[in-house]
Amino acid sequence: MPIPAGASRMPVATRVKHAANTALWVMIVLATVALIAFGPRSTHPLPKDRTVVTYWEKWTDFEGVQMRDLIQQFNQTVGAQKGVYVDYVVTTQIDFKTLVAVAGGNPPDLVGLFPHNVASFAARGALEDLTPRLDAAGIGRDMFVPIYQYGCTYHDRMYAVPLTPWSLALYYNKDLFEEFRDALAAAGVDADRAPATLEELAVYCRVMYREDERGNLTMMAFVPGLPETLGWYWHTWPLWYGGEFWDEDRGRVPISSEPFVRGLQWIRDLTDAFGQNRVLRFESGLANFNSPDNPFMTGTVAMVQQGPWFAHMIQEYAPEINYGVAPFPTGDGSPISYNGQDALAIPVGAAHPDEAWIFIQWLYTAKPIHVRSKAREPQFGYDFAYQNGARVPMPALRPVEWLCWNHYKNSPLAEPEPAFLATHPNPAIAVHERLARSSFAKTDPRIPDWTEIHEEFKAAYRDIWGSPVPVRERLKDCQRSVDTLVDLARRRQERYGLEFP
Amino acid sequence: MIRRTRHAGGTTWTGLAWISPWLIGFTCFTLVPVGLSAYLSFCQFNALRPPVFTGTENLRTLLHDPLFAKVLWNTAIYALVALPLGTVLALFYAILLNMRLPGQVLWRAMIFLPTLVPLVAVAMVWQWMFNGRFGLINQALAHLGIDGPNWLSDPNWTMASMVVLSMWAVGHAMVVYLAGLQEVPRALYEAAELDGATATQRLMMVTLPMISPTIFYNVIVGIIVSWQIFVVPYVMIPGGGPGRNAYFYTMYLYDTAFVNHRFGYACLLSWVQLVIILALTALAARVSRTWVHYRGAER
Questions:
Q1: CB of A18 within 8 Å of any CB in chain B?
Q2: For the domain with range A51-165+340-438, which CATH number is right: 3.40.190.10, 1.20.120.790, 3.40.50.1970, 3.30.70.120?
């Protein structure tokens, strides 16, 4: 059959195949163009005429808003003059992501780390040594409160600066103390003050509790692990008996030493007094920390070990609570405290370390300034505070102190502005300040692999809290595991020609 | 001839070009990392400093690592209990739902639905189900006069709670069994009935042998899944609870790599896990010769 003029000689199947191929290519090109034209965009435009400093930080909520307010102040003033723009990026799992970013060669320019990260990251070579920059800027180490400076130092070099610091104290519900006044007096303790020793705390615990008709505990004086079962500060117990996390002479974490045994025995005694199952059941029913149902806010727990931010939470969730704050009870009543700080660091490999430093330097050395913040509670307004109950204009503060003031935290500076303390919104700030500046102030050890050792200790704590295992034997067992981990960590450091710890 | 070869060569290149995204992805994200992890198993590596070859040190550490022994034991116990229980339960559901029941489709959907829920959500919900004070399970037990345990904080019950939870997600296996059951020829049941076989005999002599390849498939998948249990216990019982009784192999592997940054040791752990799963799969395949019947296979 002759082929009609103008018709293709190609078979139909081939023509279909070609058409399909062409259609596929067209679709790919269209999809690419569409992605470029309408794809994801930054939610906030970054200035093209400035160096953008990417700042990863963990804060959300009011803390994040206030940091943004402070950064905005910088960007509009010194940043504008020097051509620097700080871009605040909220980052979850910030420690892990920072390590990955450093390993990948694309870290942020600034990062806000947890207290225990500094030594560990510095040992791995993930943080820039800030010592030369601090020296050149005339920021001496004596500018910082010693315990916070210690927490940012590794091998005598500063790898971070303390941004917003804290010390732990005992927050107690005065109304509950009042309710149990007679029972407390009968037990020989005073309802008008917080317990000063752990022995006293045990008495308060034995007296202040409620149970329902089935014998379930419905209120307790104190639960050691709170805010969560193994939430934040369970590991502080050896400190209250004068213990240290690191034995410099033996090069060991002395987990089976007497202060550790006594601290954890105190915890076991508490569960034994009520029955382990009853305490565990009570604990399992406690609500989330950051919520109005927080057991302290609901009067389910009379005392908690918390940092200065807790005053802000009370203000927000249960302002009617009549509470007091005191140093946490210790073995002999000495004002031992556990401290830490959010630390600001420049990761190794950051694209703009000099510009990042300009921001850090501004935080600590700028003259006191006024910053407007929409995140402050209504009772503090945008630009006023309270002093001795009277309304006063919001004082001018150095940027870092402005941030701490708004976060309800104490100052990282050895010499805080007088107005910082005089107008501070946290009614317990004097207690937190005193504890942090005391010679009894403690913090985490500066050991490269502290996280792993800490996990091993946590397992021992968990066993002692939740099972009938004997305390001393469990800690001896833990000591063996921890010694192995320390030896491995030491060997790892030595392989890189580095000193341990 | 030459033209045809050229054409064939061109077709090959065109084919390779079209699958190149997969090839590149497979090479970059599977082949190379697998090779690297084999090398890193013999190294000290924290991702920030270059790896240092340490020979068999990681292996020697592994052999003396009490935590490795603990997670191995926990995972084996979990697999040994959860896998047979899950298999029996899924099979039971499938047989039940293969019958003509009112609301059959609804029942099937209800049993399958939990497998579609994201694991983290499952963990969060079950955390409250198992709550010692307010949990629904203990509330239900209280109505029966039983004082329920602290499921997630009592060392005697953490493993049991994980096994119980695993029963909740048998929907996937159930669907596979259901498909297998529907392939069993009706004629075999009719023949069995004519021979006077009871329901139990029909189940044992007809149903189970006929769906044995399906059971085998589900057992293999079950071995792999149970040896890789991770998300739910990691969210519900961080660290495995008291006594670390619910601390499983993959949790330890993850913590070693991404919390403690001992990537070399973690690579070795992952290879050991692969070897264990391969060995168990091979063992199951070997044993299957005695009980799996393929239609059309020569005996």
A1: no
A2: 3.40.190.10
